[in-house]
Design goal:
With 330 residues, the chain is mostly helical. It has helices at residues 25-40, 45-55, 57-62, 66-73, 82-88, 132-143, 152-172, 182-195, 246-256, 270-278, 285-294, 301-314, 323-327, and strands at residues 92-98, 108-111, 119-124, 210-211, 214-215. Helix 5 crosses helix 6, helix 5 (82-88) runs antiparallel to helix 9 and helix 7 (152-172) crosses helix 8 (182-195).
């Protein structure tokens, strides 16, 4: 339980952000370089391109924090890579650590400062020492918010993508998931919700969770707060259909693969949710099992059947908690 959020497992210990660690320009550049070399190979074009983006004066003018610049560039090669250009295209005046205006105390927030014509992305300063690879999925998430419209459908879309970005980092560096910090545990909880929303073939879904002896029988949080599937965290989804962006379209393309025809515009609507529900092409079943193992989930069929019998008896009348109740608002 110590790997997950107390909002899901009441017996879990309190969330504690990472303690102070080196955040200087050189230290973060070296960490970013090591990551990119591991991912793309020493001397590759992708490494030099990534470091050039990190070093660029134009990047520093928008993202002055060395840790957040490493966070942004570390998305290179992931589902969330379009966020790099999305953060730097002039939509956001600044991306920085500070105090989000929302009293809900989010990890990060997009907002419009008084008197400004440009949005800003503020990451909560209490997370300023979290590993940049843990911050990266949040960065991909926030950059998809190109306005202040919000809404449940938009939240469901960006969270479904964010969790896949995190999964890519975890497969690359499993120790991220077991680091025990507040952000690691939040990310783990969302990832568990995502990988436990699967159909009978093991395929990732948003509106389906099949386990044990019946559909939606056990929920996505084993022996924790009962939620039937990933999308249920955001219900009621409502009628809002917010406009998307080219960056959303690129990330959706990264999720569903080149063989799926996308509409001319990809928005935060039912069509996009259904695309993400039925066409996940990022991970194989074997990789999903590997992710579950890293999160220390029990993957045995016997465990699923036992869970079904227990939760069927104890959760039928319980209300389904929302994403805000579990993860807090953004």
């Amino acid at each position: 339980m110590a790997l997950f959020d107390p909002g899901v497992y009441s017996e879990a210990p309190p969330l504690v952000p990472a303690t102070q660690n080196p955040s200087g320009e050189t230290a973060m550049r070296n960490k970013l370089k090591s990551l990119l070399e591991k991912r793309f190979g020493v001397g590759s074009t992708q490494v030099s391109e990534g470091l050039a983006t990190y070093d660029a004066a134009s990047t520093k003018s928008i993202v002055p924090s060395a840790r957040l610049r490493a966070t942004l560039v570390s998305l290179k090669g992931t589902v969330g890579e379009p966020a790099i250009m999305g953060a730097l295209d002039g939509t956001y005046g600044k991306v920085y650590f500070g105090t989000p205006p929302c009293p809900c105390d989010p990890v990060a927030q997009v907002f419009l400062p008084s008197g400004s014509a440009k949005l800003e992305i503020v990451f909560n300063k209490k997370y300023q020492y979290e590993d940049f690879r843990l911050l990266a999925p949040v960065m991909a998430h926030e950059v998809l918010h190109r306005d202040l419209l919000g809404g449940k459908k938009e939240g469901a879309v960006v969270a479904s993508i964010q969790s896949l970005v995190y999964a890519q980092f975890v497969l690359e560096t499993p120790s991220l998931a077991t680091s025990g910090t507040a952000l690691a545990r939040d990310n783990n909880t969302e990832l568990m919700a995502r990988i436990n929303s699967r159909d009978a073939t093991g395929k990732l879904r948003l509106f389906t969770s099949t386990s044990g002896s019946g559909a939606n029988c056990c929920g996505i949080f084993p022996r924790g707060a009962f939620v039937p599937d990933f999308a249920a965290l955001f219900e009621p989804l409502g009628d809002s259909n917010n406009p998307g962006s080219s960056f959303l379209k690129q990330m959706v393309r990264n999720v569903v693969g080149s063989g799926v025809t996308l509409p001319q515009t990809v928005d935060f609507d039912d069509n996009t949710l259904l695309l993400l529900d039925s066409n996940q092409k990022v991970f194989t079943n074997a990789q999903l099992v590997r992710l579950a193992t890293i999160l220390k989930l029990d993957t045995s069929p016997q465990a699923a059947t036992a869970q079904h019998r227990t939760q069927e008896a104890t959760t039928a009348e319980q209300p389904v908690p929302s994403s805000q109740e579990i993860f807090g608002a953004e």
